[in-house]
Amino acid sequence: MTDKTSSGPLAGIKVLELGTLIAGPFCSRILAEFGAEVIKIESPDGGDPIRQWRVLKDGTSLWWSVQSRNKKSVTVNMKEPRGQEIARRLALDADIIIENYRPGVLEKWGVGYDDLKKINPATIMVRLSGYGQSGPMKDLPGFGAIAESMGGMRYVSGHPDRPPVRIGISIGDSLAALHGVIGAMMALRHRDVTGGRWNGKAGTECVAGQGQMVDVALYEAVFNMMESLVPEYDYAGVVRERTGGSLPGIVPSNTYTTKDGENIVIAGNGDAIFKRLMLAMGRDDMANDPQLARNDGRVPRTAEIDGAIQAWCDTQTIDSALSILKAADVPVGKIYSVRDMLSDPQFLARRMFEQHAFGDGSPIKLPAITPKLSETPGETKWLGPALGEHTSEVLRGLGYDDQHIAQLRHDHVI
């Protein structure tokens, strides 16, 4: 297993994960997929709760096999001083620390950013929390659902005559995780150009680069996705509202239903594309209407255009609609379920699924790793580990002998 961690663009980078559930673990998962050695600290009392979320196999979540692939699981009781010492030693040996506790928790345990920076000026800590490390709300519990609401996404999601809806995945947490990865890579670059990794020695012998804290608030990660929301309101007083399956102010781009009950997305909002779409539908009148030649002319007639497209879809099966519109070079797509994905030629050609096996030999498909790097692609080296699977291995790497490890186990520190 140690040899397997030496490949990928992040080979040689050590990451310590202090956190549970989605935002922090997804952030470190991406780093692990591209070669970083990720050590995940879990509570000896059951570990990360995501181990029991959704569909289970032998008591462990199938999600766990993806979310923690390539990670090493170390069980440590962080409420015990000897456990905090283990975490501190791991943190000082890490290039990047990723955590998603409430602000102040790590400081209480003596492994906060300021605590570590005093010893290791090259410390990079990615902190993911609901509201960030400052401000009047920083101490409140923050979940992805709240971030999606506060950051603006929920307000514009759904139909105008109904309450806002949520996207069917933990999008707020995942967006925060991606921002965490981006911040970590920028901080790592800065550290390296200002001196490099800390060599563990104090005083003048320490030639360390400049580390920093990457402060990711979940609501701000969502807010960062909200396009022109702020200037539209500030300059024109426009509050973007829910518009169902369409894109506001961009016409036509909507979801329609074919006669066999399938849902299809048609994006004919480019001026030339709109004309091709209307001609393909047999609506030469709309294709040649000068008012509809540009998007600003189409917006006031959105309902008319959507009605014409839906009327055409009422006469087509999903297959015939896709065939006609693709031939006309109109952006179009069926709304896929996971069943559709697993048999789709594009997914298969891009090798978007990986076949693996659990320890008992039973097969399991996982999503392949993205993005695709031409020279140093990501790789699944092993599935999410058993709780504490790597505790002894990692502690030996810190200099703990077997007798010391046995004592820590006896005392329920690990």
Structural commentary:
The chain is an alpha/beta fold. 37% of the residues lie in helices and 14% in strands. It has two domains: 3-225 and 353-410, Crotonobetainyl-coa:carnitine coa-transferase, domain 1 (Rossmann fold); 253-334, formyl-coa transferase, domain 3 (2-Layer Sandwich), CATH 3.30.1540.10. The chain is built from 18 helices and 13 strands. Strands 5-2-1-6-7-8 form a six-stranded parallel sheet, sandwiched between helices. A hairpin with a 5-residue loop joins strand 9 (253-257) and strand 10. Helix 1 (23-33) packs across helix 7. The two termini are 21 Å apart. Residues 1-5 have low confidence and may be disordered.
Quick description:
This protein has 414 residues and is α/β, with parallel strands linked by helices. Helix content is 37%, strand content 14%.
Structural class: alpha/beta
CATH topology of the largest domain: Rossmann fold
Strand content: 5-15%
Pick out the low-confidence regions: 1-5
Give the proportion of residues in helices.
Answer: 25-40%
CATH class of the largest domain equals Alpha Beta
User: How would the global form be characterised?
Assistant: elongated
The description of the largest β-sheet is: 6 strands, parallel
